Inverse folding.
């Protein structure tokens, strides 16, 4: 008798609690997670963008329709940008994300989930209410400023292969200059870069005047009177000797 009563109560509790548990599970709101893999490049050359901060701005609430599709209801603060979110193509999603970024860049809505990427460039935000989120990069760590990311819109949950995925993972696209080597510190006396600027022209140092030497005859100087005067002088000398001898009396021997 005792065993029959015990079995009865176990069956009663099972039949009573099972529907209650199912009802509680259905009533409990589902939450999701969003993981960002933030890297520049791919493969072995990928650069993890660690230390950057991100924010998820809920733009529209998401709920599941009777057919299993997602229905979006734009939040009141974003009614000016309301549209048929489920009917947008990739280009329209991008344009809408840029417009929404301009709307919230001065101040994020209160309660916006934020986080910072780890050493591997990854960030996971949990406990997200079903919504359409605007993913913003709100800060870059030193050295990561040269990598740029456009804002993007992502749904949590995300329709995937005919079902809804509440654990969403995305890899944002980054554009930038690419990885560069660590610059070497400048030397004490840096060498000029060839072709960067013309070398300064050296100013010649003035030299003292040279000591005067023998003066050479210059072209065009009148030198012809010199031999003429010499000839004339010699002639006068000969003429004087002749006149002198002519004036002297003859010397007669005794």
């Amino acid at each position: 008798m005792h065993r029959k009563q015990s079995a009865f109560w176990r069956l009663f509790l099972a039949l009573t609690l099972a529907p209650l548990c199912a009802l509680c599970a259905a009533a409990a709101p589902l939450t999701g997670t969003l993981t960002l893999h933030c890297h520049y490049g791919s493969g072995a050359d990928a650069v993890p963008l660690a230390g950057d901060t991100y924010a998820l701005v809920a733009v529209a609430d998401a709920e599941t329709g009777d057919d299993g599709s997602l229905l979006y209801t734009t939040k009141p603060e974003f009614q000016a940008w309301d549209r048929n979110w489920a009917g947008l193509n990739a280009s329209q999603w991008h344009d809408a994300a840029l417009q929404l970024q301009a709307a919230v860049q001065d101040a994020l809505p209160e309660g916006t989930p934020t986080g910072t990427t780890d050493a591997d460039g990854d960030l996971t935000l949990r406990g997200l209410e079903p919504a359409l989120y605007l993913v913003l990069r709100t800060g870059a760590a030193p050295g990561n400023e040269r990598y740029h990311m456009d804002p993007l819109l992502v749904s949590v949950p995300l329709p995937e292969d005919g079902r809804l995925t509440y654990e969403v993972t995305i890899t944002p696209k980054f554009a930038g200059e690419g990885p560069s080597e660590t610059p070497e510190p400048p030397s004490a006396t840096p060498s000029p870069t060839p072709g960067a600027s013309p070398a300064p022209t050296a100013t010649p140092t003035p030299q003292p005047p040279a000591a005067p030497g023998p003066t050479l005859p210059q072209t065009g100087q009148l030198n012809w009177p010199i031999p003429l005067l010499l000839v004339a002088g010699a002639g006068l000398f000969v003429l004087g000797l002749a006149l002198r001898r002519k004036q002297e009396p003859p010397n007669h021997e005794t």
In short: Residues 192 and 202 are 16 Å apart (CA to CA). The longest strand covers residues 53-64.
